[in-house]
Amino acid sequence: MTHAALTAPDSAADFEARLRQIGAERYHDKHPFHQLLHSGGCSIDQVRAWVINRYYYQTRIPMKDAAFMSRVSDPDLRRVWRSRIEDHDGGVNEGGGIRRWLKLAEGVGLDPDYVASEVGILPATRFAVDAYVRFVRDAPLLPAMASSLTELFAPTIHKTRIAGLLAHYDFANPNTISYFQHRLTEAPKDVAFGLKWVMDRAISRADQDAAAAALIFKTEVLWAQLDALHSAYVAPARIPPGGWQPHEGLL
């Protein structure tokens, strides 16, 4: 194959297929912890550990998006992007994904104030999530936005999670799992915009490679969080210093 062929950009269809293949191979729906959770195989303490650690990720998503917006000079892009922050933070007094996540925390028997304090977050969870925020803050805008395209694959896992939680856990009801229900309508609008923006601007092979690498990085951030949970709370459990202990933060 000639150098020109190796460096030529993929067609739009091939580039999108490349991005989607990353999800097919690397998205965290395939992680053993999620398979255990969705099949009803998690103990209530393992569910609680997941809720506590995932809360840290939830709180950093609007911080990540604010960091992205702070670098955007195009007001049209900022107007579109700020809805992501509103989806997670909600209004002054109500709504938002973070508040909905705390309803889930209360439903599994955790004190929401304890969860919101961020005590007990696994060190590896902090490391992975903070790395994602730094990436979006510091990387060029194209890969920074491309890293959010894991949302392409999110509706499937949310549907599986909703069905699995309702089928297998007493705490699951429309109130406690409302976070996932809302994401079924919030995520598609975000990813439709993000995917078009990335595809319109990834015009060189280098651009496409950078976008694909950013998406791979994000899948690794998500996978690393579940690796940390599985290592700490699934037999043989090995909770690291600072990690949540099952007797802590209960209602």
Q: What does the model show?
A:
The chain has helices spanning 3-7, 12-26, 32-38, 44-69, 75-89, 97-107, 112-116, 123-138, 141-146, 154-168, 178-201, 205-233. The relative contact order is 0.19. The mean pLDDT is 96. The longest helix is centred in the last third of the chain and has 29 residues, at 205-233. It contains twelve helices and no strands. The protein is globular and about 55 Å long. The chain has 251 residues and is mainly alpha-helical. The chain has a single domain (19-233), classed as Heme Oxygenase, Chain A (Up-down Bundle), CATH 1.20.910. Helix 2 (12-26) runs parallel beside helix 12 (205-233) and helix 4 runs parallel beside helix 8 (123-138). Keywords: Oxidoreductase, PQQ biosynthesis. This is Pyrroloquinoline-quinone synthase.
Quick rundown:
The chain is mainly α and about 250 residues long. It has helices at about 5, 10-25, 30-40, 45-70, 75-90, 95-105, 110-115, 125-140, 140-145, 155-170, 180-200, 205-235. The chain has a single domain (about 20-235), classed as Heme oxygenase-like (Heme Oxygenase, Chain A).
Number of domains: 1
Say which CATH homologous superfamily is assigned: Heme oxygenase-like
- Element order, helices and strands? HHHHHHHHHHHH
User: Approximately how much beta-strand content do the residues carry?
Assistant: under 5%
Our measurement of the CA-to-CA distance between the termini, rounded to an integer number of angstroms, reads: 64 Å
Tally of DSSP β-strands: 0
* Residue windows where pLDDT falls under 50 for at least 5 positions: none
User: What CATH first level would be assigned?
Assistant: Mainly Alpha
The main β sheet shows up as: none
Overall 3D shape: globular
Tell me the CATH topology.
Heme Oxygenase, Chain A
Q: What's the mean pLDDT score?
A: 96
